[in-house]
C-alpha cells in the first residue's frame, strides 16, 4: 500500500483537474491563442503538478522513509530520497 493512500482521492481530483488544464492548453495552441496566455496556463499546470508532487513527497517521507529508518534501512532510503529530490527539483 502506498503511503499516500489516505489522500488518493484528493490526488485523483487534482490530477483530473490538471488533465483538463492540459486539454485546455491543447485547444489554446490549436486556436492560435496569444503566447503569453498559453505560457500563463503552462505555469499554472506546472504549479498544480508541483503541488501533487509535494503532497506525495510529504506522505513518502512520513510513511515510507520513516518505516525504512525504523527497520534499519536508513542509508538505502536516504540515497533514494536524495535521488528523487534531485529529479523533483529540476
How would you characterize this protein structure?
- The two termini are 28 Å apart.
- This protein is an all-alpha fold and 90 residues long.
- The chain is elongated and about 55 Å long.
- 82% of the residues lie in helices and 0% in strands.
- The model has no long low-confidence stretch (mean pLDDT 95).
- It has helices spanning 8-30, 35-70, 74-88.
Task: Break the fold down into its secondary structure elements and pairings.
Elements: H1 8-30, H2 35-70, H3 74-88
Overall SS class: mainly alpha
Written as H for each helix and E for each strand, in order along the chain, the element string is HHH
Per DSSP E runs of 2 or more residues, the count of β-strands stands at: 0
Indicate the mean pLDDT.
95
Which runs of at least 5 residues are low in confidence (pLDDT < 50)? none
Tell me the major beta sheet.
none
Strand-residue proportion: under 5%
The helical percent reads: over 70%
Amino acid at each position: 500500500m502506498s503511503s499516500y493512500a489516505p489522500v488518493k482521492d484528493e490526488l485523483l481530483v487534482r490530477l483530473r483537474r490538471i488533465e483538463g488544464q492540459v486539454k485546455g492548453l491543447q485547444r489554446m495552441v490549436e486556436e492560435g491563442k496569444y503566447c503569453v496566455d498559453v505560457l500563463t496556463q503552462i505555469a499554472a499546470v506546472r504549479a498544480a503538478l508541483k503541488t501533487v508532487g509535494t503532497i506525495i513527497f510529504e506522505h513518502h517521507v512520513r510513511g515510507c522513509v520513516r518505516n525504512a529508518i525504523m527497520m534499519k534501512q536508513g542509508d538505502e532510503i536516504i540515497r533514494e530520497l536524495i535521488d528523487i529530490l534531485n529529479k523533483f527539483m529540476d
